[in-house]
Amino acid sequence: MKIGVLFFGMMKDVAGRTAETLDLPEGAVVRDVLLYYSRHNSRFEEMLPSLAISVNREYQSADHPLRDADEVGFLPPVSGGSPGGAELSGEVPGFIQIVREPIDPQAIISRLKKPEDGATVIFDGIVRNNTRGRRTLFLEYEAYEAMALKQMETLASQARERFAVRAVSIVHRLGRLELSETSVLIVVASAHRGAAFDACRWLIDSLKKTVPIWKKEHFEDGAVWADGESFPQEFHRPGATTSGNSAS
Description:
The protein has 248 residues and is of the alpha+beta class. The protein contains six helices and 15 strands. Strands 2-1-5-3-4 form a five-stranded mixed β-sheet. A five-stranded mixed β-sheet has the order 6-7-11-13-8, with helices on both faces.
């Protein structure tokens, strides 16, 4: 069977490509894909403890069974985002977007606020001019877009339930961003400020750990993929250490 394999962030540099097709025997699992690349690329093997794996845009374990035409993604720790987006489904107010044009915070805030709200709390993530003492020239963001939108929608729904806020909007920009431009905007509307503050902090912290968006930092003396925070344990897929079927 044929499996599509996608590489993101620094894994593109490790693999030397963004995507390819892999032939696997029937009955193969994700671990067989890990074993295949580990045997052919020592740098890939070094990266395994920090990777998460997706199958068809869902985080999965190394033992997850594969089917013909599945899409496997190798996801390094995230940096934390066609113009696109979606209104949140069902009864969840707000909207989620991934864009490539500049973000207009005031327009997004105005779109979300309602008369019943007592507070809106905003996180406006902007491009700063240095990282650990190195002067930043600009940033580049890329994402596994369909999966990122889905994860962002999930976080928005969880925030409403967990903190009892009325509405959440999240907008993340991709592509090249100059200094002081907004990379991600989160707006939370609620009857009470405490819940809005708590939800907004939880949303940005969770987005930075779980949403497949990566950042490349360009400095005066070179460019590097930003070190991301480790995935939560439930997303962690360390090492291909047990045997399985071999990829062809």
